Amino acid sequence: MRSPKWSSEFKDPNGLKGRYVDSFGDAELREAVCLSLKRDYGVERNPENVLITVGGIEGIQLISATYLDPGDEALVFDPGYSAYADSVALFGGKPVFVPLTDHFHLDLDAVENRDLPIWP
Predict the structure, then answer these.
(1) d(CA 106, CA 79)
(2) Are 50 and 22 in contact (CB under 8 A)?
(3) pLDDT in tens, 55-73
(4) What is the number of domains present in the chain?
(5) Which of 15, 50, 74, 111 is geometrically suited to a Cys-Cys bond with 30, CB 3.0 to 4.6 A?
C-alpha cells in the first residue's frame, strides 16, 4: 500500500505522467530563449533552431559527438571545467589547453602563436 503522504505530494500539473516530452526541449522555453536572444543581443533565431539540454555537459557532449572526428583538436580553456576535456577525448578528439589570463579572459596571443585549427 502506498503512503498517503507520498500520494498526496505527487502532482502532475501538466498531465505529462507517462508521456514523452519534446526532445528539443519545452516549446515555451525555446520561444523564451529566442525572445531573450533578440532583446539582449539583437540575434534572431527560430525556436526550431534551439535545443534545450538538461545541463551544460549534455550540450558539450552533443557538440563533441556531432562535430569531432577522431584526432581533431578542440580548444579547451585552462583553467576550466575538466569535463569539457573529458568530453572531447570521449569522442576521439584531442583537447588542446589554452591558458586564460589572470582575470580569466581568453589569451588571444596564446591562441595565435599555437598554429591551431580554429573554426571560422
Answers:
(1) 11
(2) no
(3) 889 999 999 999 999 999 8
(4) 2
(5) 50
Residues 6+ apart with CB under 8 A from 83: 57, 60
To the question of pTM greater than 0.70 for the whole model, the response is no
Residues 114 and 71 in one domain: yes
Q: CA-CA distances (angstroms) from residue 96 to 15, 32, 35, 103?
A: 46, 35, 35, 20
List the domain range (segments joined by +) for residue 33. 1-52
The Cβ of residue 87 has, within 10 Å, a number of other Cβ atoms equal to 24
Judge if 31 and 4 occupy the same domain. Answer: yes
Give CA–CA dist 64/73, Å, rounded: 11
Cis-peptide into 79, omega within 30 deg: yes
Same domain for 33 and 75: no
